[in-house]
């Protein structure tokens, strides 16, 4: 076996780019030829966004979503200093809420955004179906 050295004569840049879909589309031509790590600014998570970015920027290696995060939910029945207010047990509101409200609270806490209505509707339909079948 023989080993030969082959000099590297060219390479591709790795660029970090950030913007909305419209901004990225406007810059697409100037980014051609480079590998891209893309941060997409969106109002909330949505299915198919990474695919749309890759249609605009075929050399995108990674697509991350950046969206405004909501503040952590506060406990129901607590004052600003965290003490339970009279007549409440200080438990999180979601603990006694229906399953859809609990899912919404979980999604808000974990994703920092509101649960998309289509997912809430699907969850409700599936939950009701399970309840009917197990009753």
Could you characterize the architecture of this molecule?
With 135 residues, the protein is α/β, with parallel strands linked by helices. The chain folds into two domains: 14-66, no CATH class; 72-135, no CATH class. 37% of the residues lie in helices and 15% in strands. The chain has four helices and three strands; from the N terminus they run E-H-E-H-E-H-H. It has helices at residues 21-31, 49-56, 99-111, 117-134, and strands at 14-19, 35-41, 60-66. It has a three-stranded parallel β-sheet with strand order 1-2-3, with helices on one face. Helix 3 (99-111) runs antiparallel to helix 4 (117-134). The N and C termini lie far apart (72 Å).
Give a brief description:
With 135 residues, this protein is an alpha/beta fold. The chain has 4 helices and 3 strands; from the N terminus they run βαβαβαα.
Main traits of this protein?
single chain; 135 residues; alpha/beta; 2 domains; three-stranded parallel sheet; 15% strand
What is the strand and helix layout of this fold?
Elements: E1 14-19, H1 21-31, E2 35-41, H2 49-56, E3 60-66, H3 99-111, H4 117-134
Parallel strand pairs: 1-2, 2-3
What's the overall average pLDDT, rounded? 81
Low-confidence stretches: 72-95
Q: How many separate domains?
A: 2
Rough outline: elongated
Biggest sheet architecture: 3 strands, parallel
């Amino acid at each position: 076996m023989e080993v030969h050295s082959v000099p590297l004569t060219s390479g591709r840049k790795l660029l970090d780019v950030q913007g909305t879909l419209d901004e990225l589309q406007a810059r697409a031509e100037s980014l051609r030829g480079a590998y891209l790590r893309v941060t997409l600014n969106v109002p909330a998570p949505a299915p198919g966004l990474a695919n749309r970015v890759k249609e605009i920027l075929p050399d995108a290696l990674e697509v991350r979503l950046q969206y405004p995060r909501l503040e952590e939910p506060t406990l129901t029945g607590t004052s600003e200093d965290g003490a339970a207010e009279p007549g409440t047990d200080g438990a999180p509101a979601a603990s006694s809420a229906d399953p859809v409200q609990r899912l919404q609270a979980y999604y808000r806490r974990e994703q920092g955004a509101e649960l998309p209505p289509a997912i809430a509707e699907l969850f409700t339909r599936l939950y009701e179906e399970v309840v009917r079948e197990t009753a």
